Amino acid sequence: MKIFARTLLILCGALILSETLWADNSGRIYGRIFTNDNEEYEGLIRWDKNEVYWVDVLDGNKELPDKNRRDAKKYGSGDREREHSFEIFGLKVGGSENYWPDNAQSGIRFGHIKSLEALDDDRVLLVLKSGIEVELTEGSTDIGSDIREIIIEDNKQGEVELVWDDIDRVEFMSAKSAEVSKFGERIYGTLTTRRGDKYAGFVTWDVDEVLDNDEIDGEDGDRSRKVKFGRITAIERYSSSGATVYLKNGDQVVLKGTNDVDDSNRGVIISDPGFGQMRVDWDEFDRLDLSAQKQSVTYDQFDGGRKIKGTVHTEDGETFTGEIRWDNDEEFTWEILDGDYRGAEFDIEIGLVKSIEKGSTRTSIITVLDGRTFRLRGSNDVDEENKGIFITLANGDIEEVDWDEFEKVEFSK
Fold first, then answer.
1. Is the pTM of this model over 0.85?
2. Closest CA to 269 of 91, 140, 368, 122
3. What confidence tens digit (pLDDT) does each residue in 375-391 have?
4. Are residues 49 and 129 in the same domain?
């Protein structure tokens, strides 16, 4: 009996020790990549350097259907006006013309995607979990030959780096591997802006570094320094040309001279599962406090989107309930509203929005499901440049509400 008990203790100890070598990868992008030369790889995926979690956004442009233009002419104000005038010696030359945009900026969180097929050098076909098919074209380095890198940590062969021309298709799925990634865990923390606003979530630094084995670099006097994020407790804006980096061992160092730590920084992004993501430039950044990652958002928590539904209220007291096409563009819950709020740029997933209320001709008040509100401006999603709100009623009729008439929309789940 004593021998059995000792053996059991040894086995339990070994099990506990072995568990320290494993990680919770439930929040990581995972899938199977098929290449054009018939190779197949499966494992954790790092997409364009800075997308590694299901909450991260694949950016692109989508073509606007001709139907939207026809509806605008039939029910709304028709084509939009575009100014193409200029002044010379105080005189205005030219005027405006009607136009219909061919495409619109778009994006989707990776968790909604079932598969991705590379159609050509700058175009992909996405099949979502809901069965919806979406075609996106190059709108960033996420799609096409300008992509910075695609790395898959194959479960058998280890790390494999691919370029865009290698990709045939990608099938996404929940992680089957619990092995610790060589790149480390996702950076998590709380960002404070210079206006005092705080946002907590998964961090993307300089639109580049996202995992705790990634490095922040800069000049410390006459020396070049590289510090892994896993050693850092906080980063604080020192000036337009530098940052103070606080280390876990109690040391601190002022780094300068690179885009990681000065006003050439491309932005600090916080991905918040409660609304989407926000981004600040260096001029608005004050401090980032790093902390232990909270519970991951898993692949199973995304549904692939569905038609937007709700009730639109006008200033005249009319209400229209049905399927909604917002800004004559967004019609699915996976799509994104964008705008600026207190010096930060916001991308808010429509499926996480409870209501939108017109604040003025230039602003809207967005209330998300957890009760937080953001007064956005600076985008046709939320101001007088809005291309119209189209509601398909239960009987199939279509109503259009112009921004001048719009008061509020309440979305249904």
1. yes
2. 140
3. 999 999 999 999 999 99
4. yes
Q: Assess whether 271 and 403 both reside in one domain.
A: no
Q: Is residue 341 part of a domain?
A: yes
Whether 158 and 196 share a structural domain = no
Place of tokens 């005038």: 85
Last residue in a domain, options 248, 265, 296: 296
Give the structural domain span for 331. Answer: 306-411
Per-residue model confidence as pLDDT tens digits over 231-246? 999 999 999 999 999 9
Count other Cβ atoms within 10 Å, centred on residue 277.
24
Task: Identify whether residues 286 and 314 lie together within a single domain.
Answer: no
How many residues are recorded in the chain? Answer: 413
Three-state secondary-structure class, residue 126:
strand
Write out the H or E segment, with its range, that includes residue 325: strand 319-325
Helix-, strand-, coil-residue percentages of the chain, each rounded to 5? 10, 50, 40
Angle at 214 between CA 210 and CA 217, to 5 degrees: 115
Measured CA to CA, the distance from residue 191 to residue 279 in angstroms comes to 10
